[in-house]
Amino acid sequence: MDNIKSYINQHKDRFINELIELLKIPSISADSAFKKDVIKTSEVIKTALEKAGCDLVEICETPGYPIVYGEKIIDPNLPTILVYGHYDVQPADPIDLWDSPPFEPIIKKTEIHPEGAIFARGACDDKGQMYMHVKALEYMTANNNLPCNVKFMIEGEEEVGSESLAWFVERNQEKLANDIILISDTGMISNTQPSISTGLRGLSYVEVEVTGPNRDLHSGLYGGAVANPINVLTKMIASLHDENNHIAIPGFYDNVENLSAEERAEMARAPFSLDDYKKALDIDAVYGEKGYTTNERNSIRPTLDVNGIWGGYIGEGAKTVIASQAFAKISMRLVPNQDWKEITELFKTHFESIAPKGVSVKVKPHHGGQGYVTPIDNIGYKAANKAYTKTFGVEAIPQRSGGSIPIVALFEKELKSKTILMGFGLDSDAIHSPNEHFGVFNYLKGIETIPLFYKYYTEMSK
Fold first, then answer.
1. What local confidence, expressed as pLDDT, does residue 404 receive?
2. Which of 70, 113, 223, 368 has its CA 20 to 30 A from that of 330?
């Protein structure tokens, strides 16, 4: 694989242009208005895998959006790597905060990405990182140096809970049989310091509804006489944290994993500047659970956040109204040992119990998933570290991630496989936010590094 850099340099413009064309398709799984675009994206991925060298590629129908499955089996006696990614993206809202249209990709230089970054929805999460694997396969097949078997499973519902993926995995265990699973849907510390995500938080996502009077009321005639659902909802939400930003739901912390001082010290090795962190977000102070650092708060501790809240009149001008209903969407990021279904039930029971008289409350669970921790002493981690060390010149640092990929725990349960998380994005890439982007350096460095993982993993498996 000594010629991989020259191969990337030779095909660099094509690699970038192919990704740009993929990013133009608004494959928003959360909005049914984009159903045709999601389907179209699956077809584009199928064609790309065929061109990259897969001997079998098929679009597998599910109760929801299809899964693109591909494989290249060179020898059943060799290890098999299963690559997972997703082709759906988050909604682009709020559109007016984008500096350029979210589905008209452009490349701009930034302070962090002097070689340029591709700005578009899905650039980093996950089209850019998923497509690195397609191009890595292309390199290996074109140069006849694929050292093991490879399978691809690319889904279209990750951003809405991967419900159909669970259905598919349970019914296709033989098809998906593998020795290790490889995912690039996470990040790394910086472009000079790679890291490997060794833990993911779980997730419980719910929607709450508070209903008061049977219709919207005049705030002058009824204000102060009936419960205002918006006022009530905000008070209920505020009560979910105490003065130390500790989540005030009975039983919430019963199974929370508490890391030792030694483990927390190992985490603290990762380079981190609080001043740079605040500057990047344009804030003058950080906020969170008392007794923990910023990096601990967003990785090894559970959280509860309101993701959206609405009710009443929000149009231009004024309308003096007491709304009949108020709503909020709430997500809870969970740590290993917290069962997301149990936490969802604890939330529901507690939230309904704190509702005052005069309103009724409904809690609607949406989706969730378990947290995950992978050991750093298995050959998958060692192969990934060796690959990063080769291409970056420094060893990777193990790091817990604050994000959630709920299906990782499902993979271990159903396929009995460990997952290696080789991310190449940065915290500054604004995933799920306006102006999402992915560095050209990161994209190409991923294509360079991934084949080395195949090589080292195969060697270590002998």
1. 79
2. 223
Peptide bond into 229 cis (omega under 30): no
Tokens 């069962």 belong to residue: 339
Predicted model pTM: 0.82
Question: Are 190 and 396 spatial neighbours (Cβ–Cβ below 8 Å)?
Answer: no
Grouping H, G, I as helix, E, B as strand and the rest as coil, residue 455 is: helix
Largest Cα–Cα separation, the chain: 79
The candidate with the shortest Cα–Cα distance to 97, out of 121, 124, 116, 115, is: 121
CA atoms 427, 256, 409, 65: torsion sign:
negative
- Kindly report, residue by residue over 239-283, the tens digit of the pLDDT: 999 999 999 999 999 999 888 888 788 778 888 899 999 998 999
Place of tokens 């344009």: 282
**CA dihedral sign of residues 301, 302, 304, 305:** positive
Q: How far is C-alpha 23 from the chain's CA centre? A: 17
Q: Among residues 247, 53, 259, which one has the least CA distance to residue 152?
A: 53
pLDDT given at position 373: 86
> DSSP letters along 303-330, please?
EEEEEEEEES--SSS---EE-SEEEEEE
The SS3 assignment for 187 reads strand
CA 156, 159, 163, 167 dihedral sign is positive
Q: If DSSP codes are grouped into helix, strand and coil, which group holds residue 10?
A: helix
pLDDT digits (tens, 9 = 90+) for 378-434: 999 999 999 999 999 999 998 888 887 878 888 999 999 999 999 999 999 999 999
Q: Which two tokens stand for residue 393?
A: 């010149």
Angle subtended by helix axes 440-460 and 127-142, to nearest 10: 60
Determine the pLDDT at residue 265: 85
Between helices 35-52 and 4-23, what is the axis angle to 10°?
160
Burial class (CB within 10 angstroms; exposed 0-12, middle 13-18, buried 19+) of 411: buried
CATH code: domain 4-200+371-460 is: 3.40.630.10
Q: 402: exposed, middle or buried (C-beta count within 10 Å: 0-12, 13-18, 19+)?
A: buried
- Domain boundaries along the sequence of the chain: 4-200+371-460, 202-256+302-369
Length of the chain: 462
Nearest to 348 by CA among 234, 252, 214: 252
Residue 58, CB half-sphere, CA atoms under 13 Å: how many?
6
